[in-house]
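hey so i finally got around to running the thing on that chain from the lab meeting. sorry it took forever, my laptop kept dying and i had to restart like 3 times. anyway pasting the input first so we r on the same page abt which one it is
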Amino acid sequence: MTRRIEALIAVIDEALIIIAFLLLGIYVARSAGLIDVSTAVAVVSGVGGFIVLIAYLVIRVHSRRPAVGPEALIGMEGQVFEDLDPEGLVLVEGEIWRARSRGGEKIPRGMRVRVIGVEGLTLIVEPYPPASTGSLHG
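ok and heres what got predicted. didnt touch it at all, straight out
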């Protein structure tokens, strides 16, 4: 949610600058008799619509879940590759990652886990029910 708000604030900030220059330009053009009121309204409406469209697209992009990097793994399931005590290795999406158990508990090799967070390049995981005792190779 925070990323969306930051993106929206950035778009509003830029939009206010654009609107200020636009209104100044319209004021000067109207004072010089270069444009009439209907043209000024059409220009302001068009620019306003464009700004709303850009704001919508920016918020939509920032609402997406990350597609790459460790953050993209949050919510994914994996399997302990090397005992977590509390740190070790996990296999998630075909890659081996350094991981740490959330509560510092020991999680043995072969147990299923779910990624609940990321600190740097270390995944934070918790056991994922139902607990599996199967091995990685079969």
